[in-house]
Amino acid sequence: MTTPTPESQLSSDRLTRARNRRASRMLTQLRADEREAFLEDLARLVTPGFDLYLLLLVAGLFVGVGFRLDQRALLAAAVLVAPPMAPVVGLALASVSGSARFFVRELASLGIGLALLTLGAGLAGGLGLPAGESSILAAGHIKLNLIDFGLLLGGSVVLAFLLARRSQVHPLPSVAVAYELLLPLGAAGIGIVSGDAELWQGALLTFALHLTWAVLAGMGTLVVLGFRPLIGGGRSLAAAIVLVGLMGLLSALGLGASVIAAAPTPTPTPTATPTATATGTATITPTATRTATPTATASPTATETGTATPLPPKAVVFGGGDSGVILRDAPNGNLVAGLFHNMPLEILGGPLRVGEQVWWQVRTEAGQEGWMIGAYLATITPTPTPGG
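Predicted structure:
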């Protein structure tokens, strides 16, 4: 019995990689047993280990702190710390190959890891967060964005392509996919812990839709490259069809809910109703004289005087830093817009105390109305104008 030398092991590894590359290029020409062996090699490559859970937990802590402090650098660090998104392309591979067992195993591994990320982000970013305060960066993940969607699809396609052609999970497209999956899920965790229903519902919807389309994009890429359900009866093909149908249904439901959530709700605006004012009328008083001809004297006519219409008090946003201040449709309500330092405002109502916060109703120069925390509001003393 001969002991393999390091040179022979290296040569064997190179031979295996070369064999996999040749198999991926002529996948449709392989026999069933050869295709099965090749798919098993890919399955082992995308099956996660313990490091997936540990790294996702650490990434969740970075996401939570990054959203809490509104620091993009920490969010970028979270994506770089995150493990390769091998389970995502693994779901696509399981769907195309028709292996329900492999699909459930990948889904369970990914689900546990993402639950740890949600927990870490929620505790780091939402625990002890004052009522009415939320991250502007986190609020950016409650609705779909075309640029984010394009980055997600591009990363998923490249990730699946390199897995099929080079038998590797490339880090660059994996980072793109991680950015579009982990940040919305981290924002949802913060919303759950802090009790912000709009944040966690919108962010969770965005995450679900991103994950669905990432798997669908990977499936489409693998199908184009020649991946098909394994031969051996209609059970594998039926499983693949069911998985594809499930993904399509989830996507359609998520898209419909997103459209409904994004539709603006009209809010009534107060209108001024003019009231009639009484005006004085001239009366003629007859005056008796000693002559036979009566004469009438007219009393003076009252003249209308103009009343000044009070203008809303002026104010500016004071403080907030680079992240700004959030304008809401009601105290502790839904997000309307972001306000920044020295932005001019008009005060419409308030103060209104809700819990420990004092809120003011304001209007921006763009016409957006809402409520903001009074600690970030500075009033401007009006300069009196001489009356006419």
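Summary: The chain has two domains: 20-262, 314-379.
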